[in-house]
């Protein structure tokens, strides 16, 4: 089976309540989180990228160099992450995309190598979902096949994407990686301090 283009989708619409400031603008490796993720996607060979903004969208879009990424504003971001995922999927030409590397803005530490490995694993296995695993723990980003797009778009915003993903456990490929960065979820100030110490 021939696998077509793989797109990138970055969700950065949340209110960052626990952090107390916009996570998209927190600095990692000398750049805002969002800029780091976009740069890694490009370096991993992903040319079509959609970024979903919501809370403080204007401020973030002015502060971050998004390059040729398409910015989508989710006015319903308060409904939760699923609403942002759906907004991003709608912006893509779904008929021409075989899958998306789904990145969350609070996971900035996943390397370019991991993003490349996700694509390679998807092309080789044609799995419905590819999830990076480090020391038996699942991380991010994940690669989702276009086979799931219709079901994801049909979800009620109150339902998480895992509602769909769990249905396809038997068709999910768990990809072992050496990069502990896939596990780093920056939700609170303490998480951010740990990330800065890691750098």
Q: Percent of residues in beta strands?
A: 15-25%
- Helix and strand content put the structural class at alpha/beta
- Helix proportion: 25-40%
- Give the overall shape, derived from the CA principal axes: globular
Q: What Rg do the Cα atoms give?
A: 16 Å
- Biggest sheet overview: 8 strands, mixed
Strand segment count? 10
**Count of helical segments?**
7
SSE topology string: EEEHEHEHEHEEEHHEH
A few lines on this structure:
The chain is α/β, with parallel strands linked by helices and 199 residues long. The chain has seven helices and ten strands. A hairpin with a 2-residue loop joins strand 7 (129-134) and strand 8 (137-138).
Task: Provide an overview of this structure.
This protein is of the alpha/beta class and 199 residues long. It is 32% helix and 22% strand. The chain is built from 7 helices and 10 strands. Strands 1, 4, 5, 6, 7, 8, 9 and 10 form an 8-stranded mixed beta sheet that branches. It has a two-stranded antiparallel sheet with strand order 2-3. The longest helix has 14 residues. The chain is globular, with a radius of gyration of 16 Å.
